[in-house]
Amino acid sequence: MMPKFKGKTKPKLHKPSMETVMRWIVTLLLGFVVLLPVFAGVTQYEQNKAKADVEDVLAFMQTNCRKYDNYRLANTTEALQDVLTKVKTLTAYRYEEEDALLNENRLQSYAKFQYLTGIFVLDENFSVLAHYDKAGKDESLLLSQIIGDKNAADILNYPQKTYADQICLNDNTYNYAISARQDKPGLVICYTDITRFQNDKNELSLSTMLDAEMFRQDVTVVITDGMRVISTNCEQLENTLVQYYPIADVLVGGEQLTPDTLLQLKNGSGTWYGMFTQYRDYYLYAFFPSRVVYASRRGWMLLFTAIYLFCGMGYLIWRQYSKKRRLLRMEKEYHLVSAISSIYLSNLLIHPQDDTWEPIVQSERMKAVTNGVLSAKAMLEKFNTECVAEAYREEFRAFTDLDTAQQRLEGKAFDGFTMENVEGKWYQLLLVPQRRFTHREKPSSLMLLFRDVSKQKERDMEYQENLRRAAEEATLANAAKTDFLRRMSHDIRTPINGIRGMVQIADRFPNDAKKQAECREKIMRSSDFLLELVNDVLDMSKLESGEMQLEEVPFDLNELLHDVGMLLSTQAQARGITYTITMEDKREKHVIGSPLHLRRIFQNIGGNAIKYGRAGGYVRATCSIVSQTENTVRYRFICEDNGCGMSEEFQKHMFEPFSQENSGARTTYQGTGLGLSIVKKLVDAMGGTVTVVSEKGVGTTFITEIPLKLDPAASDAEKPEEEIDTTVFRGLHVLLVEDNEVNMEIAAFLLEDSGAEVTKAWNGAEGLEKFNASAPGTYDLILMDIMMPVMNGLEAAEKIRALDRPDSETVPIFAMTANAFSDDAARSRKAGMNEHLTKPLDLEKITKAVRKYCKKNSRYKP
Questions:
Q1: Would you tell me how many other CB atoms lie within 10 Å of the CB of residue 278?
Q2: Edge to edge, what strands does the sheet with 186-193 contain?
Q3: pLDDT: which is higher, 796 or 458
Q4: Fewer CB under 10 Å: which end of the chain, C or N?
Q5: What is the pLDDT of residues 300-321, one digit of tens each?
């Protein structure tokens, strides 16, 4: 009983809408339509499966019945043959006395000896002359059945015949045999009652064949003779009359079933499905209960129901999701309209059909222009005349043409236009269609939006200007590339022309020693310039790509400055210039850094001072300490000259590649214009600074400051200078691996001229093969080019170091290559090489390396 609440309103239940009710009804009907054929299909599948199982059981039963009949026939034949033998023995025996077969005692004795139940002796009229029965029975009924058969009369007429058979009488079974008497006309019949021990005698019977353990527990099998159940695996059905178990004449629809039809039986215990077949005189039946036949149907139906419910729930979820998305889209459109109204200066709603308009948001300027104008076309034309810049009026008029707006906006979300007003400000206009229902319908009204994009337009114009400048710079870069190629063509061809010209001149004066020496000197000068040009270009390329690797190795700064000073002094002396270098503070000379690149900086700056100096002038270089910490020291290097100097205009571009103040400098001074660019990039990479003070016609001063790390493990002990002695090559056996014929000839000449024995190999694979084929200790040194065909030098060196022989780790391997960068040297050492010698070959450097490594008991250390 529902409680009553006083003073409170009864809560109202939410009634589902008719659409929701119809949706659920359609879902249920659809489910019924879908699951009904599934149910029918699963049922048919289960019945077919049950039919196949029953057919297997029936086939098994037929096989066993066949075995049983064969076995029973064999036993019966054997028993009858035994009785027949016994009766033939009895009649064939020759007795001394007359009518011996009529002696009852003799018959009794023979019957007991032969395990016979009884014996009949008959005359030719089938009258009983003598009879013995073990149980004393008359057995006249048995005799009448035997002699009633025509076989008895046939044997009497043909005494040579015999006959044996089995007969069932009053639930007793007898085996008997008939034979003709030999002494007189008549018959002798011997019989055996096998009723008691027939089943005991047979090892196989139908009951044993249908043992419950031989079949599945859920199947019932029955064998009948048409009258009664003679064998089954169900105890309740044993010896049951068929009329009380009518499985043989099941009717469906009034028609008798054929043996291949699946039967359906119903009784008090439930419903059964099975089949029957006939074998000889037997009717075989096999049945499964319906719970076994349809064991999987419930699971299948549950599975398909779950699938249908899952799909249905998925569909409903999708509908809800779509509905939610639609609501979110509508909400988004509402917020979008609100956002548009807040972002745009003016928002006008125009109705083209009736030529009206209404403001949603208006700027003060828009109000002043459109106040009092009711026609949408007139309002747009007035705004165009008074506000739009003259250059954009025709485009504005076409953009706001209401007669063509619907056609232009068909299939579009909006249409846009950018214009400039009479005050120089930029505005973006959007014409957005407003549709009543879906986006497929024609717009019923239009929204005209105005937005101030002056700042954005300025940025766009600035961007366009930047693009223009970038295009100009790209054009200039292409021009610079073309100029670079032109300069390189000139700078490379000039020394090559000098070398080839000097060779031709030397050929013209073969016997003039002075002329020959002069030509060789000029050839070396041209080759030095060509080498300098290649080094400058490669260094510049490495620096610009960021691939230049600075070393971090300890070195003596005084020694480096001394070496640079010696080189520059020679160049200055040749040009009549005085060169001096001073180390003002020698306290911290052992430092850590990149001596190779530091030497390059000093040589480029000092070389330029000498190259552009004047005869009788000077070049002064000084080195001093600016500041010092516990681990670092900052050096200042000053190079001062009184040469030609540089103009202020050129000083703005002096660090740019290929920059030279005078166009004739390339010819006069043989410069590449890359020296100062390399200096600037190297100093920046080292964390230093370079400043220049120069005056045209007065001179130039370079001030370079570079920080270097202090070497804590340095020693002040002076190293003795080693004299270059090429006698170290005498007796050395060198394996020279080089693919270039000219380079091979030059290297072989330098080595053989110094007393070495040279074995040549023209690629890395050939060098590896010759080293591997030689006896250990054959080669004292391997000079290996890097870039070679078949196998390069790095791979060849790695394979040599990996060989299983005593000298594979100890033989010195020197890289002999045109790859002159520090990372190239690092790759050579990683491959197992001891030294990295650059081309053109310097005999002095080779001699130092040979003295260092070609010693006894020295081993390679990677």
A1: 12
A2: 128-133, 118-123, 186-193, 172-180, 162-169
A3: 796
A4: N
A5: 888 888 888 888 788 878 888 8
Residue with tokens 């790390």: 709
Residue 666 has pLDDT above 50, yes or no: no
CB 167 within 8 A of CB 174: yes
Question: What is the Cα–Cα distance from 659 to 504, expressed in whole angstroms?
Answer: 34
Rounded average pLDDT over 156-182: 85
Q: Token pair for residue 680?
A: 């600037």
d(CA 498, CA 504) in angstroms, rounded, equals 10
DSSP H or E segment with residue 223: strand 220-224
Mean pLDDT, range 722-729, rounded to an integer: 67
| Helix or strand (DSSP H, E) at 710 | strand 699-710
- Torsion sign across C-alpha atoms 460, 461, 464, 466: negative
578 Cβ partners below 8 Å, 6+ apart? 572, 617, 618, 619
What is the residue whose two structure tokens read 């149980």?
Answer: 135
Number of Cβ within a 10 Å radius of residue 851 = 14
As given in the structure block, the two tokens for residue 76 are 């019966």
Instruction: Give the CA count within 13 Å in the CB-facing half-sphere of 351.
Output: 10
The structure's pTM equals: 0.39
- Could you tell me the two tokens for 158? 């043909």
Given a cut of 90, whether residue 648 has pLDDT beyond it is no
Residue 768: its H or E element = helix 764-773
The answer to whether residues 246 and 268 touch, using CB atoms and an 8 Å cutoff, is: no
- Please state, in angstroms and rounded to a whole number, the distance separating the CA atoms of residues 234 and 263: 19
581-624 pLDDT, tens digit per residue, is: 887 766 667 888 888 888 888 888 888 888 888 888 999 999 98
Could you tell me which residues come within 8 angstroms of residue 434 by beta carbon, excluding any fewer than 6 positions away?
A: 349, 443, 444, 445, 446, 447
- Could you tell me if 354 and 444 are in contact, meaning their C-beta atoms sit under 8 angstroms apart? no
Q: 3-class DSSP state for residue 669?
A: coil
Please give the Cα distance from 549 to 771 (Å, whole number).
34
SS3 of residue 238 by DSSP: coil
Q: What phi and psi, each to the nearest 5 degrees, are found at residue 418?
A: -115, 135
Q: How far is CA 522 from CA 497, 499, 501, 529, 853, in A?
A: 11, 7, 10, 11, 35
Q: How many CB atoms lie within 10 A of CB 849?
A: 19
- Interatomic CA distance for residues 176 and 168, integer angstroms: 11
The alpha carbons of the chain give a radius of gyration, in whole angstroms, of: 63
Contacts of 641 (CB under 8 A, 6+ apart): 609, 610, 612, 613, 617, 618, 619, 620, 699, 700, 701
Alpha helices in 359-437 (DSSP H): 364-370, 376-387, 393-399, 402-408
